[in-house]
């Protein structure tokens, strides 16, 4: 498939955000196809179109990569630096002080006690103030935490805990594996990192799965653990940051897809007042 203006346009638009939910990617592609009728190459399926872009990006050590939001199950895309092995190379527009604070935050989240993969908002705030720079006021630290959420590195849970957002899981994968080999967990089914999910309770198994992977598997192979093949229904518990999600939001969020046009279609700000109202969270 030829590389055309459509690919260039798509990439230019994607670069502005570096991170997009699948629905937004589909919309962007449709819009570009409509606006470039002069492009007489047939409109290829989206996957093929993105594959052509990835071949162009490969020599630059960049790649469009897809994952699923661990909480909502929504598919999301990010532009990933495939050789980037340090936070400083990936989050280039933060100052040195902010980068240090971000690294310490990631460390605190990855090594959280009980494997919760999260850090309370008060602890996060004082960590940023302490590590950021001597001049970082409480307000600036708070703003920086907001910036990390807006930039899709962190998610703030409704209970007031920061945890890693899908972009961080995708882009920092190599970094996290290198820095925290004893702390990371991979999903038994898809092999991606998992920081919130479900764990098989049998002590000789303890397989960990994303919620969406477990659901997909359970709908095919009823009631068995994909690793040990024993009964699953009452023999699994919540793992990682999943345990912090309020009960009333857990099931609804897994099947929920926010309509386009809402301010936060990828659910990265779980605690914003609008997304926690009954009307939107239970849709
Ligand atoms: Zn998985
Ligand atoms: Zn098992």
UniProtKB/TrEMBL annotation:
Family membership noted in the UniProt record: Belongs to the NSE1 family.
Keywords: DNA damage, DNA recombination, DNA repair, Metal-binding, Nucleus, Transferase, Ubl conjugation pathway, Zinc, Zinc-finger
Purpose of the protein: Acts in a DNA repair pathway for removal of UV-induced DNA damage that is distinct from classical nucleotide excision repair and in repair of ionizing radiation damage. Functions in homologous recombination repair of DNA double strand breaks and in recovery of stalled replication forks.
Superkingdom assignment: Eukaryota
Protein name, as recorded: Non-structural maintenance of chromosomes element 1 homolog
One Gene Ontology CC term in the entry: Smc5-Smc6 complex
EC number: 2.3.2.27
Localisation: Nucleus
Biased composition (Low complexity): 268-283
Region (Disordered): 255-283
GO molecular function, one term: ubiquitin protein ligase activity
Main subcellular location: nucleus
InterPro entries associated with the record: Nse1, Nse1_RING_C4HC3-type, WH-like_DNA-bd_sf, Znf_RING, Znf_RING/FYVE/PHD
Occurrences of domain RING-type (ranges): 187-229
Assembly mode: Component of the Smc5-Smc6 complex.
GO biological process: double-strand break repair via homologous recombination
Catalysed reaction, written as an equation: S-ubiquitinyl-[E2 ubiquitin-conjugating enzyme]-L-cysteine + [acceptor protein]-L-lysine = [E2 ubiquitin-conjugating enzyme]-L-cysteine + N(6)-ubiquitinyl-[acceptor protein]-L-lysine
One Pfam family linked to the record: zf-RING-like
Top-level taxonomy: Eukaryota, Fungi, Fungi incertae sedis, Zoopagomycota, Kickxellomycotina
